[in-house]
Amino acid sequence: MIETKDKPELTGSEINGEECIITIDKVNKWYGDFHVLKDVDLEVFAGEKIVVCGPSGSGKSTLIRCINHLEKHQKGSINVMGHELTNDIKDISVIRQEVGMCFQSFNLFPHLSILDNLTLAPIWVRKMSKKDAEKIAWKYLKRVNIAEHAHKFPAQLSGGQQQRAAIARSLCMQPKIMLFDEPTSALDPEMVNEVLDVMVSLAEEGMTMIVVTHEMGFARRVADHVIFMDEGRIVERQVPEKFFKNPENERTIEFLKQIH
Ligand code: ADP
Ligand code: MG
């Protein structure tokens, strides 16, 4: 947990009485000459669920990687829970502890058991005792329904089980925000739902979530807002009902035709 002194100042980040925990303001990013994010603005409130979709290469992964500073932006500002993400940021470990991330490719450590994957960061980053870390790990292993696989290595688990282990690993750090980058796109179809179910239950418990996904059923069920990105810009942001029934942007309309 971050100390009270590190808690975000609500002044300036509070809109209509709601706490804005991520504020992205006119963010621009380049990879060399390639302008990948263009004037991206986004506010995320505590407990809000945002689904991000859009064509491949539109900047979705880059955007969410900027939020936990895995990628650096060059212009504009990103503020996460009161911490401004600058190039010389000193409290990046606070950001990494508060913002969990799950990737398409699970990224579990192959040489560690599932249990050891889950306890590694709490022991080394949060300085927890092994006993306390294991207690939390078991809680989340049960929560994602893979407790019986705790002593196996990642390669011994199915893709769906590995992704649930990866989610549990993030939860062990007790983050306030979870970022998901196409968490189900590497899975065989029959395993997609077991991962989405875990994400739905997280959402129902009030986790703040930004999810890059093309699982539109999930978006309809869980999202407060759906964002559509194209060529580095957020071109549409709507509540799901409007996004699916009556999108405004031409590109969104085209995109939705293709995936339905
Ligand atoms: P998306 O997740 O929407 O598919 P990405 O954010 O991964 O899009 O990528 C956006 C664009 O930036 C793509 O054209 C991609 O090739 C390019 N890109 C992504 N990562 C890098 C990188 N590390 N270096 C150079 N170009 C990159
Ligand atoms: Mg991507």
Give the mean pLDDT.
92
Report the order of strands and helices.
EEEEHEEHEHHHEHEHEEHH
Q: Based on the structure, what is the oligomeric state of the protein chains?
A: single chain
Largest sheet: number of strands, sense, barrel closure: 6 strands, mixed
**Number of discrete helical segments:** 9
- Structural class comes to alpha/beta
What would your notes on this structure say?
The chain contains nine helices and eleven strands. The protein has 260 residues and is of the alpha/beta class. The strands form two sheets. The chain has a six-stranded mixed β-sheet with strand order 7-8-9-4-10-11, sandwiched between helices. Strands 1, 2, 3, 5 and 6 form a five-stranded antiparallel β-sheet that branches. Helix 3 crosses helix 4 (130-143) and helix 5 (159-171) packs parallel to helix 6 (189-204). Bound molecules: adenosine-5'-diphosphate and magnesium ion (MG). Adenosine-5'-diphosphate (ADP) binds at residues 31, 34, 36, 54, 56-62.
